[in-house]
Amino acid sequence: MTQHSDSKPPTPSSDESDTLSVLAPIARSSIVDAVVERIRGEILSGRLAAGSRLPSERELSLALGINRLTLRAALARLEAMGLVLTRHGAGTIVASWRERAGLDALGALARGLPKDDPARGELLAAILEVRRVLAAEAVALAARRATAEDIAGMRAIAEAQRHNLHDPVAMARGDVAFQRAVVRAAGNVGLELILNTFARFPDEHPDLVAQLYDAPQHTLNHYPLVIGLIEARDDRAARDLVRSALEAVDEELVRRHSPAPKADTRKRNGSRASLRGKK
């Protein structure tokens, strides 16, 4: 394997030159996080296309204004996220995030889209669909397995939520606590791990949370329904009723936050094409 010295960097390929053109130096606060956020945003937006090769470490570190150790830490984290691949002899390749990334990419996708982008509405709908699946299955399993102590815990959290009606972030945190109580009563660790993705939204994506919890009274009204279904011990009815109830609420939420259609609906910007998997 040929080694290049720092004094004679390799000539960038056309792919690498294009990549360097979209990157700029990064401020030195929370550097690894900032590098991860910058490159992840470029990948999820489609500006760094799947299959393209990133420039060399030297070129990337110079473009971003960081040292190589910081860059390697950031690339290692991006690889763990499923966004890049390191291949011996080929360097670092942008991965197909739709095939390799996890649920954590949902929030990052939403954050990278302008509020008036139709793709943001589509992504919001996708997040809500995932949440409905999680909620319906968790409540169904909890209807079989919840103890009296589990149900008492849910009631306490629901009551405490009355104090959070005017604070979307606090409401979101409380809702996660309620969902976690349901999921733990369901006795399924896989559902708990999926919930962890949504549990990070209040801290990492406050703008998205403000959209999801813009009608907090609806959230509050949902708790007695869920607790009653669990107490009824009818898992099939619980699954169907939770899905149908959330579907109606979620459809209205998406309508409230969907931008007005533009004149030419056939045109797609890069972020929308990326979200739908089109080229």
How does this structure look, described?
The protein is mostly helical. The chain folds into 2 domains: 14-100, Winged helix-like DNA-binding domain superfamily/Winged helix DNA-binding domain (Arc Repressor Mutant, subunit A, Orthogonal Bundle); 105-260, GntR ligand-binding domain-like (Four Helix Bundle (Hemerythrin (Met), subunit A)), CATH 1.20.120. 66% of the residues lie in helices and 3% in strands. It is built from 15 helices and 2 strands. It has a two-stranded antiparallel ribbon with strand order 1-2. Helix 7 crosses helix 9 and helix 13 runs antiparallel to helix 14. The protein is elongated, with a radius of gyration of 22 Å. The two termini are 35 Å apart. The relative contact order is 0.11.
What's a concise summary of this model?
By secondary structure, the protein is mainly α. The chain is 66% helix and 3% strand.
